Amino acid sequence: MQGALAVLTGAYRLSKDQAATLCEDLFSIPICPGTICELEQQTTTALTPVVEEMRQHVKTEHANVDETGWREEGSGPGCGSPSRHW
């Protein structure tokens, strides 16, 4: 439940009140917004080492950026001429 609440209030940007209502409505689990705040802090603490490890890994890898452009008809300066996009 802790992970689900973290996703609901983080990624899905539900308020604490909305998340509490959802828990009550869907799972019949009463929870107050203050408890959700506490669970968010615990989740942050638990995930901090993993996130830091991922950040370090990403810094050492190549981005594999492809700067190849493509043409699209009808979006150029003359509205009928092709233009280049990246």
Structure description:
The protein has helices at residues 2-9, 16-27, 33-60, and strands at residues 70-72, 83-85. The two termini are 42 Å apart. It is mainly α and 86 residues long. It has a domain at 2-58. The protein is flat. Helix 1 (2-9) crosses helix 3 (33-60). The model has no long low-confidence stretch (mean pLDDT 86).
Write the layout of secondary structure elements.
Elements: H1 2-9, H2 16-27, H3 33-60, E1 70-72, E2 83-85
Rounded mean pLDDT score: 86
Overall geometry comes to flat
Q: Regions with pLDDT < 50 over 5+ consecutive residues? A: none
Q: What's the tally of helices?
A: 3
N-to-C order of helices and strands: HHHEE
Q: Return Rg in Å.
A: 22 Å
Helical content class: 55-70%
Which terms would index this structure?
86 residues, 2 strands, two-stranded antiparallel ribbon
Quick summary of this structure?
The chain is mainly alpha-helical and 86 residues long. The protein has helices spanning 2-9, 16-27, 33-60; strands spanning 70-72, 83-85. The protein is built from three helices and two strands.
